[in-house]
Structures are given as structure tokens and as C-alpha cells.
Design goal:
- It holds the Pfam family Pkinase.
- There is one protein chain.
- It is built from 15 helices and 45 strands.
- It has about 800 residues and is an alpha+beta fold.
- The protein has five domains: about 130 residues, Bulb-type lectin domain (Agglutinin, subunit A, Orthogonal Prism); about 120 residues, Hepatocyte Growth Factor, CATH 3.50.4.10; about 45 residues; about 90 residues, Phosphorylase Kinase, domain 1; about 190 residues, Transferase(Phosphotransferase), domain 1 (Orthogonal Bundle).
- The strands form 13 sheets. It has a six-stranded mixed beta sheet with strand order 36-40-41-39-38-37. Strands 29-35-32-33-31 form a five-stranded antiparallel beta sheet, covered by helices on one side. The protein has a four-stranded antiparallel beta sheet with strand order 1-10-11-12, with no helix packed on it.
- The longest helix is centred in the middle third of the chain and has 22 residues.
- It starts with a helix and ends in a 20-residue tail after the last helix.
């Protein structure tokens, strides 16, 4: 969290005395007048700072879109810290030039100007990229006539000072550098404010964080010791913003107003030999503000922290936007565009009130404030529900302390948090008629076409008879042709997924060249999507289509077509072409959780592992309670939890999933799953419930905590071979530190380690009725519900934890 001003004031003054923030003189390589650089693939750098830490030139953002920018040049990410033309990318062949008269110009291949800093350039003698990350136009006497530090985009660097008035503007999306929906403003009156905007205009809308400090001559300073603060003209500290304990000599640093509206202070180790401790070679968050953007944004006009009809969750500095049940994102690549209902709204036709066609989906600790149009006191839940059902405008009602709020579309300021002491009730159409797929032309449309042709051509009885015979022939041929595909094709034709041909996927995977993974019945290949994004995809090819595989294929397509959640791998389409059965998924660039935990020499950070544990729990909770059809996954294990480029956890592989009908809580089925993760009831011919996934998650959680497999045959001590047994022994003997031995970050968080271990022990109780639901599991992990001491596990034999 961001630091308390009073607590750090004296410490900061000491730092400032030792390390003044003023930029020292440095050498640099000059760009002479008349020099230019062309935007081409593989030809990015025009100028490099003397140390090589920063570069200036073109970054290729799209296939034919280049960004004139400054970036960190010695790390793989090449993180952009400043850009000139984020809202107007330069096409290939564009040129940036320092003209002979001293002007800096960016022109497209036709000579049309895309960007210029606006200075006359008459005194400019050269340009240079400095070691601070500042790009300058300088005179013969080395006076800076223009500098990027005076015109920041979304980032501020050590050594940079922003004077009144100054503004940082977030980018639109992570890979879209045009102006976004948030601003960080040092106002003329000295107040430092985070704003939402009246997007698409850049006018400030709602202030969701502020220093509430006022005065002339204020500056926002990011000094070389890694301290970010608001300073008065006399040099005194007005307000602390952030402070890093990582020295700039060993760490790169930046503070960014990101596209999600959170202002974050990052550090990145300069080399593996730096004093980085257990920190991985990646950008790590030091501080962020506000403390909870989801609850801090409550604007009268606008959607809030997320888009209209969506809701916001904030966990560990990460903002996530979700659609409620029955709604889906308008644009999954831009969640701020909000969510749309996937069903027809209630009719306001007085003759057909449709009150019996809707029901309520409950969401605990959830609210959409400031969008209510009616409010009632001293009423109960049943009364509130009935009132909303009888009101065709009512799409949502909020309950709390015998109070009832009615809301209509669109909802705004949505958030879900344990501090929200209210319950949301979404009005959903019972038939959940969400299927609005544009499929093949229906047969009735074919019949209409034939009838129209018949009418147009009929001029005699004989011609009508001929056309009638021809029409029946066409219909017969069409039906016989349509009946050829196998039953699995008919079973999945109603899904809103794209159907690919075998030839399309053969080309997309370059003849199935690159294997991502292989199992007993399938192989997964890496491919490239067909759309303009050319993003990678994963193609799962089922081998030797026997009956069992055919059922697995139908199950996975049917299951995925019912799901839509951030923590589930997205199914993009399928292939059911002749003998070929394939599934097309989004590509998860960081591989499986199993590889992340067990196949690396360096232990992943504790905070990252806990984030993955929470995200996996949320995915399972969605399957159990929030999906339109309740789903038991049946094979929760680290191999089936995949990680995207941001290490977001997503559950995959639904081939063994079991669907439950509405009102059904248990099912009878043969043993499924993977040894070591299978709940005891599988072996006892007991009815199977969602609690089997809870058991598997408990084992998985222990693996995440301890960073080891559930069974280690080569363990030095035989008492440690079975992780669940060893964990219980360590818990019973109060020696939990042995589970995370060598993990300094976890050892510093032993209270959390103990809590997570207790949750896992509840999950792996032999009696399914003793196991918590996934909702309760998530609440315990998040801290909104206390964790009681788990009972003894009868299946364990207590041995000494050595």
C-alpha cells in the first residue's frame, strides 16, 4: 500500500540529503541535423543512451503500425516509457527526421506530417537519448530546447520532475497507445488527482484519489533513490506518493498510470547478479494507488471502474472486470465497453407481463450503486423480488438491511468485495435463450426460397407441376445431404462456436508442426489465428476416434459452450470434419501450472503462487455455482491449470466434466480424474457431487503452497512422500515452516501459510459433507470468513514431521 506521509517524512528527508534528485550531467551520443530513421520491421532503434539502458525509435505495434517511442532497451520486454503518436500509428516506410533547420518531424511515406514536438527548431543543434530516459533537442551550448520529460505520456522515471500543471494519460489498452479513460493530474492549484474521463473526450469526470494539497510552485518528483513525492517550491515534502527500497543502481524503476486506472510503481532487476534476492527477472509492483479502485470510483456519469453492466474485483493491486451471470462482454478484448444481456429483456406489453418467465440469480457482496430508480425501506427479500418481477423496467435489485433498491439497464459502478454488505439479485429469463448464433441457413429458409421462385416463374399449371417436382427434389437432396454428418456434429451444431475445417487447421498449425503437449488420447499443437490479429492459438487434436474419445469430444464442446469466465480457458471453435475431431483454444503462453511450479530451477514467488490459487478457486466456483449449467470438472490438477502471458490462471481440459441438470446435486458415474487428486468417494461407489472438485483443489492448493508434487517417490524421508500426509503431520506438530523451507517470502508470511494449509485440510476431508463449498473456500482464502481448525483426518496416520 502507499506510504503514510507522517511516518516516512523524516526517512525521506534523510534519503534526499544523501541522494539529491537533480539530474547530473552525462555524456550522450548526438543525433546530428539532417539525420533520419525509417519505420521498418527489424529496424527499430534510431538512438541509444550511453549506458544502453534506453532507446529511441520505432516499436512495431501492428502489422503496419509503428510507434515512435522511448523504451527500456536492456530487458526482454522493451517496455515503452514515452510515445509520440499513440493515437496515430505510423505506417511502414514512415520517417522521423531531425531536419537541417532543427525541426523534429514524423512523416508518413507520402510526406504527410504525423507528429512534431511543435518547436521552431531554429536554435536546435542536435538531439540525444540520455541515460535518464529523457530524449532532448539541444542547442549548441547544450541547453535543452525540448525534452520528452516535459511532455510525459503515461510514465514518470527516476530523475523526472513534473511541474504545475502536468498530466499523465493512461493508454487505451495494454497494446493500444491512444489516450485512454484515466488521467493523473498535477493541477494548477497544486492538488494531485486521479480522474476518470468523460471518454471519448479527455475532459475530467470523477476524482477517485487526491492528495488534497493546494499551493503554487508544487512539483511531482521521482528522485534517483526511487522516492516519488509532491514537493513545494521551498523544497519541503508536501505528500508522499511512493517509495522503493530497491536502489536504482540495481533496479530499473518506473511509475505508470496504467490502462486500468491504477497508478503503479514498478522495479525490475538490472541483472541476475544484482542483489535481487528471490525476485524474478520481471517487473514487480512496489506500490499502487488507489488502495481499491473498485470501491473508490463511484461516478454519477459513466460506468465506474469497469464497463456498464460489469462488476469490478480488486485483489493484490490487480483490477479485474467480470460480466454477471446471463451477460457477456460486448468486446472481450476491451472489457471497458461493458457487458450485454444474453437474453431478451422482460416485455412491457401490458397484455403479456411475463412475470413467470424470469428468476433471480444471487450475487453476495455485490452492488451497482448510484443507478437505482426506486428505493424501499423495511421490506423483506421476497417482497423485493416480487416487486422487481412485476416491473418490466427492473433488471436488478439490491438488498441490504431490510432495504431494497430497484435498478434498470445499464448498471454502473459495479463491484464485488467482502466489504460490501449487500446482495445483488439479477433478473434472468428462465429459458436463458442466449443462443443468437449466425449459423447455416435454416431449412425453412430454403423452403421459402423455393416457394418464391415457384411463384415468380409460374405461368401455367404444367410449369407449376414441374416446379413442384423440382422443389421436392431439391428439398429431398438437401435433407439427405444434411443427414450425412455424424451424431456428434448434430450434438454441437447449436453452440455459438466457430466450426473449422481440417484444412483450415492444418494450415493454421503449419502442418501440425509444433507440439505443445501430448496425452493418452490427444495432442495439442501451436497455431496462428485466421483474423487480423494473427494471435497464437492451441489446437487439440483427438487421436484414434474410438467411442470414448467421441464422447470426450462432445462433452468438452458442450461444456465449454456454456462457460464464460476470466479463469477458464476460452474455447474458440471446433473441427468435426470427417474423421477429424479437434478443439481450438486461446493460446496460454506461460504453459501449465505444473511446469510453473515443478519444472523451474527457481521457486516462483509466494505472492504469485497465492494469486494463482485464488484465480483457480474462482474458476471452479464459477463452474459450480455461476454457470448456467452446474459443472463438475472431475480432473482438477496442476496440468489442467494454464497460465497466460500475465500469469493469470485459467482452468482447462473439460473432457471428463460432468454436467448436472437444474436441481440435481449429485450424479453416479465411473471413476474419473487423476491418481493423487481423486476424492475417496470415487472408490466407494458413492454419488458424486461438486465436493470431488473441492478435494482435488485441496491437493492442488498444497502443491502451490509447498511448491512440490503431491507424491514424491524420491523424497529423502519416506514420511514426506505423500504431501497430504506430511502436511497434516506438520500441522499437527506445529512445524508448518518445514513445508516452505527455503522460501523466505513464505516464511515471512507464516500466518497466511497456516491459514492456507488449514483451508486445504478442510478441502481434503474424507467425508464430503465436511468439505466446504468452493464459495466458502474462496471466502476463507480472501479473509472474509474465519478459518476454523480442521478436524483430524481419519485416513491419515500421524507420524512425526521430520
Amino acid at each position: 500500500m502507499f506510504l503514510d506521509q507522517k511516518y516516512h517524512l523524516m526517512l525521506l528527508c534523510f534519503f534526499l540529503a544523501l541522494l539529491p534528485f537533480a539530474t547530473v550531467a552525462q555524456s550522450h551520443k548526438n543525433i546530428s541535423l539532417g539525420s533520419s530513421h525509417t519505420a521498418e520491421a527489424g529496424n527499430s532503434i534510431w538512438a541509444v543512451s550511453p549506458s544502453g539502458n534506453f532507446a529511441f525509435g520505432f516499436q512495431q505495434i501492428q502489422e503496419n503500425g509503428f510507434l515512435l517511442s522511448i523504451w527500456f532497451n536492456q530487458i526482454p520486454e522493451k517496455t515503452v516509457v514515452w510515445s509520440a503518436n499513440g493515437g496515430n500509428l505510423a505506417p511502414k516506410g514512415s520517417k522521423v527526421e531531425l531536419t537541417k533547420d532543427g525541426s523534429l518531424l514524423l512523416n508518413d511515406p507520402t510526406g504527410r506530417q504525423i507528429w512534431s514536438p511543435g518547436s521552431s527548431g531554429v536554435e536546435t543543434s542536435y538531439a540525444a537519448m540520455l541515460d535518464t530516459g529523457n530524449f532532448v533537442l539541444a542547442s549548441q551550448s547544450s541547453e535543452y530546447l525540448w525534452q520528452s520529460f516535459d511532455h510525459p505520456t503515461d510514465t514518470i522515471l527516476p530523475g523526472q520532475v513534473l511541474n504545475q500543471p502536468s498530466t499523465l494519460v493512461s493508454r487505451y489498452l495494454e497494446t493500444n497507445y491512444s489516450s485512454g479513460r484515466f488521467q493523473f493530474v498535477l493541477k494548477g492549484n497544486g492538488n494531485l488527482v486521479l480522474y476518470t474521463t468523460h471518454y471519448p473526450t479527455n475532459a475530467p469526470n470523477f476524482a477517485y484519489w487526491t492528495t488534497q494539497k493546494f499551493g503554487n510552485g508544487f512539483s511531482l518528483v521521482f528522485n534517483q533513490s526511487g522516492v516519488l513525492f509532491l514537493q513545494a517550491s521551498n523544497g519541503s515534502i508536501i505528500s508522499m506518493i511512493s517509495s522503493s527500497t530497491s536502489p536504482t543502481k540495481d533496479f530499473y524503476q518506473r511509475a505508470v498510470l496504467e490502462y486500468d486506472g491504477v497508478f503503479r510503481h514498478y522495479v525490475y532487476p538490472k541483472s541476475s547478479s544484482s542483489n535481487t534476492g528471490s525476485l524474478q527477472m520481471a517487473w514487480s509492483t512496489v506500490d499502487f494507488l488507489p488502495s481499491n479502485i473498485c470501491s473508490d470510483i463511484r461516478e454519477d456519469f459513466g460506468s465506474g471502474a469497469c464497463g456498464f453492466n460489469s462488476y469490478c474485483m480488486f485483489d493484490g493491486g490487480i483490477k479485474s472486470c467480470y460480466c454477471p451471470y446471463g451477460y457477456s462482454f460486448i468486446d472481450p478484448d476491451d472489457v471497458m465497453k461493458g457487458c450485454k444481456p444474453d437474453f431478451d429483456s422482460q416485455s412491457c406489453d401490458g397484455s403479456s407481463p411475463e412475470t413467470d418467465l424470469f428468476y433471480f440469480h444471487e450475487m453476495e457482496n455485490t452492488d451497482w450503486p448510484l443507478t437505482d430508480y426506486e428505493y424501499f425501506k423495511q421490506v423483506n427479500e421476497d417482497w423485493c423480488k416480487q416487486e422487481c418481477l412485476s416491473d418490466c423496467f427492473c433488471a436488478l435489485t439490491i438488498l441490504g438491511s431490510n432495504e431494497c433498491w430497484k435498478k434498470k439497464l445499464p448498471f454502473s459502478n459495479g463491484m464485488q468485495d467482502s466489504t460490501v454488505q449487500r446482495k445483488a439479485l439479477l433478473k434472468i429469463r428462465k429459458d436463458n435463450s442466449t443462443s443468437k448464433c449466425e449459423g447455416p441457413v435454416r431449412k425453412k429458409d430454403q423452403s421459402k426460397l423455393i416457394m418464391v421462385i415457384s411463384v415468380l416463374l409460374s405461368s401455367s399449371v404444367l410449369l407449376n407441376l414441374l416446379l413442384l417436382v423440382a422443389g421436392f427434389s431439391v428439398v429431398y437432396w438437401w435433407r439427405s445431404k444434411s443427414s450425412k454428418p455424424n451424431q456428434s456434429s448434430q450434438a454441437i451444431v447449436e453452440t455459438c462456436l466457430r466450426s473449422f475445417t481440417f484444412e483450415e487447421l492444418r494450415k493454421a498449425t503449419n502442418e501440425f508442426k509444433e507440439v505443445l503437449g501430448q496425452g493418452a488420447f490427444s495432442t495439442v499443437y501451436k497455431g496462428v489465428s485466421f483474423d487480423h490479429t494473427r494471435n497464437h492459438i492451441a489446437v487439440k487434436k483427438l487421436n484414434n476416434m474410438v467411442k470414448e474419445n467421441e464422447e470426450e469430444f462432445k462433452t468438452e464442446v458442450s461444456t465449454f459452450s456454456r462457460t464464460n469466465h476470466r479463469n477458464l480457458v476460452q474455447l474458440l471453435g471446433f473441427c468435426n470434419d470427417g474423421e477429424h475431431r479437434m478443439l481450438v483454444y486461446e493460446f496460454m503462453s506461460q504453459g501449465s501450472l505444473a511446469s510453473f511450479l515443478f519444472d523451474t530451477s527457481e521457486r516462483p514467488s509466494w505472492s504469485q503462487r497465492m494469486q494463482i490459487a485464488l484465480e483457480t478457486a474462482r474458476g471452479i466456483l464459477y463452474l459450480h455455482e455461476e454457470c448456467s449449467t452446474q459443472i463438475i470438472h472431475c480432473d482438477i490438477k496442476p496440468q489442467n491449470v494454464l497460465l497466460d502471458e500475465s500469469f493469470t490462471a485459467k482452468i482447462s481440459d473439460f473432457g471428463l466434466a460432468k454436467l448436472l441438470k437444474i436441481g440435481q446435486s449429485r450424479t453416479n458415474t465411473g471413476i474419473r480424474g487423476t491418481k493423487g487428486y481423486v476424492a475417496p468417494e470415487w472408490f466407494r461407489n458413492m454419488p458424486i457431487t461438486i465436493k470431488v472438485d473441492v478435494y482435488s483443489y485441496g491437493v492442488l492448493l498444497l502443491e502451490i503452497i509447498c511448491c512440490r508434487r503431491s507424491f514424491e517417490a524420491n523424497a529423502e524421508n519416506e514420511n514426506q512422500m505423500v504431501l497430504t500426509d506430511w502436511t497434516y503431520d506438520c500441522f499437527h506438530e506445529r512445524k508448518l515452516d518445514l513445508l516452505v523451507e527455503g522460501d523466505n517470502e513464505a516464511l515471512d508470511e507464516m500466518k497466511m501459510v497456516e491459514k492456507y494449509v488449514m483451508v486445504s485440510l478442510w478441502c481434503i476431508q474424507e467425508d464430503p459433507s465436511l468439505r466446504p463449498t468452493m464459495k466458502k473456500v474462496l471466502q476463507m482464502l480472501e479473509g472474509s470468513v474465519d478459518v476454523a481448525t480442521p478436524p483430524d483426518l481419519p485416513s491419515f496416520t500421524t507420524t512425526m514431521c521430520l
